[in-house]
Amino acid sequence: MSKGKILVVDDEPDIVHSLSLRLGAAGYQVVSAMDGLGATKAAIEHEPDLIILDIGMPAGNGHVVVERLRHIAATSHIPVIYLTARTGEEDYRRAREGGVAKYITKPFDAVVLLAAVEDQLERSRLCT
Amino acid sequence: MNAPLASGTPRLNLLIVDDREANLQSLSQLLARDDVAIHTALSGNEALGLMLEHDFALVLLDVQMPGMDGFEVATLMRSHERTRHVPVIFVTAISKDRQHIFSGYDAGAVDYLFKPLDPHVIRAKVAVFLELKRSQLVRERLLESLSRANAQLEEAALLKSDYLAAASHELRTPLTAMKEFCSLVHDEVVGPINDEQRRCLETALRNCRRLGGIVEHLVDLDSVESGRMRLGRGAVDVAELVRERAAALASRCRAAGKSVEVSLPARRGDAEALADGELVANALAQLLDNALKFSPPGGVIRLRVRRLGDRITVEVGDRGPGIAPDHRNRIVRKYTQVDRRDGPGEQGLGLGLAIATRLLELQDSRLDLVSTPGVGSIFGFTLPRYSPEAHLRAFCGDAVRQASRRWEPWSLVLVRDRLGGPVPAWLVTAAGQAAEGIDDRRAVVPVLGVPTLAALVRGGVDGVVAWTDGLAGHVPADGGEAALEWVTVGVDETGAPAAVPPASSWRVMEARQAPASEGVWR
Q1: Cβ B310 vs Cβ B384: under 8 Å
Q2: ipTM of the complex
Q3: Which residues does chain A have within 8 Å of residue B189's beta carbon, measured at their own beta carbons?
Q4: Which residues pair with A83 in a beta bridge?
Q5: CB contact under 8 A, B180 and A18
Q6: What is the DSSP letter of A59?
Q7: Is A101 within 8 Å of B171 (Cβ atoms)?
Q8: Predicted confidence (pLDDT) per residue in B240-277, tens digit
């Protein structure tokens, strides 16, 4: 049985591919999207337990996606982890404002990412 | 008498005002020069009209004229921005009694000539004013080109920062994929591998991490240099910091067959420095990296913290190859690693010591080096010992220096609990939000033995009033803990604060409780 459904969003196919392998091996079910619009659609369609989201993307960056998801009842509660190469103060500020659960910078450590994923899913389970 | 006019030198405009045509003609002839264009006016009105068209180096003004007299013309000139600073020579036959009328205006810009006129005197006086105007024009041109060059430099620096930020972002993405795919194979996510393959992948991963470190360093160094890194100075226990770092270093040392020795002051307070703890930790980390990198196998890295009077010194000694005297200045510059052959294989971009140097300079410290080629090197730095007075002084100096290169009126506002209790957390938050648009920088500093919120507020008295008023509006609704008092302290252009006034000068902060709808700062 799957440990949970995770939506991976990144405009780099290589990153999506590697995350699918890594999360799949750890027992998660993975769905993916390649841009901001696709992310919103996939979140509504699949209602994942967690979203791993890039910030710099076409058709709506990560901050825009988070804002959209917060306004949709079906997706407003889904925890989001940022996985991004951006390290600007403005990005951190918007992440805090959008209620993003964790901010992980690229290049990332797989152990750190998996721990954050597990931690978030655990919190969600405790809340429901 | 007239030197040939240098090409490109603009002719200066001279205005002569007199109600008699004959006087205008004789003065014009007397004062004719190649480098001067002479304009004439028969009345004050005509003169003022010409002044709006031309930029005059000097006006020779007849005092007794029908209609508007010379003094009235000058008064009108002084009331207009365009003509306010044009020098005037009054030409007059009357006594000196009325001179006092203009004594209050721009000193030196007004002079008198008495009729009958002496040709030598008038030529000499006019020449002096023209010379003054020439040097003023040269100065203005210089200033203009300087400020243009300055703006270009600032733009280039911004461009460089943007470029570095973009480059690091571009580098991070492929690096992430490279590292992650190596790691997927290494972790056997995609199938089993043998030991030889694992070792190969470990090498690849180690190099990925190194590349990541270099990318980080590039951005770090840039943010230090462009002044985007903010200082937060306070009391830092340097001994504790060194102890922590040494413990972290020890395991890396053991892996490389090297060891660490630490020597700290016996008394706790003897290692308390005034510094930004994070920046010191970062600088120290760079020095330790360097020492580890250049120590030979079996080498010992010595860390020592000492108090020397009002200063605390930190030293990192290694048994590396040492640095020849003529190479010492180079190592603190960016991208230089002295003689790469000397390194025992672990090489970097040479950014570490440059970063350490900048981090220390930010705190008015510097990187010292004692080195003997073939024996080893000792890198060290010195920090001021912590005292509340030094803390307040440093806070003001840093804030003024970082806030603006221009001098503007600054006021230091001190706010404290009247009973001497701790500074409430909501106050620190509110201080940053109070009076929108007024730039303020704040820190909690012990003043007169009491924890105090120090804020540097821009905008003179008005700024202080607006700021304290804004702060009062943030007082929590229950208000019980808001027994605050405040005082203003002058700050000079270097950021040095005046003496803190005694307790009797502090004023009670009239708490204007926030309406419930505004929300409460907690």
Answers
A1: yes
A2: 0.85
A3: 21-22, 25
A4: A104
A5: yes
A6: S
A7: no
A8: 889 888 888 887 788 778 888 888 888 877 889 998 88
